[in-house]
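I hope you will forgive my troubling you with a question about protein structure. Could you please explain, in whatever detail you think fit, how the structure tokens follow from the sequence? Thank you for your consideration; the sequence and its tokens are set out here.
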Amino acid sequence: MLGQPASAELPRPDPPPPDPPVAEMPPPPRLLNIANALTVLRLVLVPVFVWFLLEGGTEDRAIAFVAFALASVTDLLDGELARRRSLITDFGKIADPIADKALTGSALITLSYLGELAWWITAVIVVRELAVTGLRFWVIRHGVIAASRGGKAKTMLQIIAISLYILPWHIPLAREIVMGVALVVTVVTGIDYTARAIRLRRAVQ
């Protein structure tokens, strides 16, 4: 009796490929970091700077200048450090522009109060800065408008102009020229930022 033929073995299916490793999300930056610390330092230096500026003596003006210069350096450093080291936090997004406006706004208002700077110049710059801050919050859910070269130039010109006014030495022509240029750049960049914010809002609607 012939035996039954052995059934042909079916090929076994290849095992499924292993799941790709899930990329681990980097942990969010801590609230306490160097960038946020510099922002807080700038806020702390504002009343110190204003106090010595109001005192009015030569040494007091020198101390006010040092405090303003130190605060201005933190303004230039905190954002750069936050971007390079991935230290951007919600606190920093809110506190950094507030600290910036507190520094320049308090300086301009104090100088106008002392009669050294026309009030209309202070009003134009402060209103522009507050309006741009409002625009930042208006579009923050839709994107971030990168700082332009004009915006960076505006910040630098304002810092230089205010520093010239704070110095205990009287250099009226130089400080008036720099402040005039800073005023023009402030207005022009404010118009540009407004236009870019409106375009961004329209693009996402």
